[in-house]
Fold this sequence. Notes:
Number of domains of chain A: 1
CATH superfamily of chain B: monomeric porin ompg
Distance between the termini of chain B: 52 Å
Helix content of chain B: under 10%
CATH architecture of chain B: Beta Barrel
Structural class of chain A: alpha+beta
Radius of gyration of chain A: 19 Å
Distance between the termini of chain A: 71 Å
Number of strands of chain A: 7
Strand order of the largest sheet of chain A: 1-4-5-6-7
Number of domains of chain B: 1
Number of helices of chain B: 2
Shape of chain B: elongated
CATH topology of chain B: Porin
Strand content of chain A: 15-25%
Oligomer: heterodimer
Largest sheet of chain A: 5 strands, antiparallel
Number of helices of chain A: 5
Number of strands of chain B: 12
Largest sheet of chain B: 12 strands, antiparallel, barrel
Amino acid sequence: MRHAPLLVIAPLVIPVAQATEYFDTAGAQKALFPSATTFVDAKVHLTSDQRDKIKERSDVKQRWDEQPVWRVEKEGQFVGWYVEDRVIGKHEFIRYAAALSPDGRVLGIEIMEYLETYGDQIRQADWRGQFLGKTAQSTLDLGEDIKNISGATLSCRNITNGVKRLLALQQVALTKPAAAEVK
Amino acid sequence: MQTLNRSSIFGAASLGFMAFFSPPLIDRAEADENLFGYVLGAETLPKGASEMYLWATHRWDKGQGTYSAYDTELEYEYGVTSRFTASLALLGQFINTSGLVIDAYLPGAESYGLKFSGIEGKAKYNFLAPALDPIGLSMMFELHHSILDSHSGLDKDTTSAVTSLQLQKYFLDGQLVTVGNLGLEATYADRAPLNAATQSSADIAMQNLTGDPSATFEWPTDPEMEIELTTGAGLSYRFAPNWYVGAETQYQSEFETQVGQERYSWFAGPTLHYGGNKWWATLTFFKQLKGGREQYINQADTNLHLIEKTKNELRLKVGYNF
Lengths: 183, 322
């Protein structure tokens, strides 16, 4: 066979299925809002105009129309938004969740699924903690406001931009529920 | 012509020196995963990370007779800092050629399986990270020594030093990657004389080719020096998780003291890349689209350079991170 020597190493490259899911939705909700009593599905369907506004405010493209969002309540009080998102990693999507306060501050983020070669430190509390308290008015520059992780620069950049985008999405598409809506 | 004064040259040199040896302010390494077979990205390994590479390149078809050669490379790369990687490689080659004699390059049939052919060392320094800065920029220095001629398969000591620049730019959050390369290679080579039987059969082949009964096959054994300029570009798009498809191209031009531009060639082709958590692999088919300058006697396709190059190449690279 003409390319026989190449075939010798070809079996080495057969993809091996692997899955590293750190949190499912219920787990991430519990981690980000430990004292919450109710998570109300409030999935957002974005219009083209809203997607444009998100891009304008965050300088990050909103790639999809639907954004998974839950309204979070504690004993009948509205305490914030739980938002799930995904961003491009070097090989696969990185799934993460963000907790946002009613007034638009980051209460926390959790990495739900991360399959990249390097950068597991992204899941550590000190890296995620850099986002605490950030608002749509905060600067979120990788390397300055958010520390980069060697070997995972693209992942760090895209998660940082993702949080920036979610803060803009909250301003554009999430409105505080009226008192009667909250059970 | 505007000239640089001495202090500005000293200033630029000092800045370069400080940038190279100062500790990085920001960890900026990504991972030196090769999305392409021939052109290189600007990323380096993180500090303390290691990667093994296995390359195999099949070169075949010189337009006459049979020509099929494989180049193999087993390389270990280490992230010395988050900006600087160093690597060492063992080289090997297979060859099978017959029915083709090229004056001064290919004296006749040769066939053998895998043979050790040389060693290679590389050092790559990242100045700008593509995922952090507006554009990624690295410089690489390679030192290469081989004991076999990659064209004829015969004994030949070749030492090459290559200095190259790698540019890389991400688009669409990293879903689309573009790279550009520019390199300059200086080579010193020294061939062993042919044995009497090979010289004699090559002389007869030359007499048949030229119709001149006094023709002889030239096989210079004086050391030769050459300079080669290489430029290339590539574009790769992630069409599904873990999978990239792309295209790359490379132009090479070689210059020698006595003949000026000795050859040029322009290759291009598609690339398929798989990248996983630990393993990655890249397959590139490279076809010579245009080439020229020196040609062998009775070469049929005069739009290609087929003395030192072939019509087609296929390269498979496999990398393992640990």
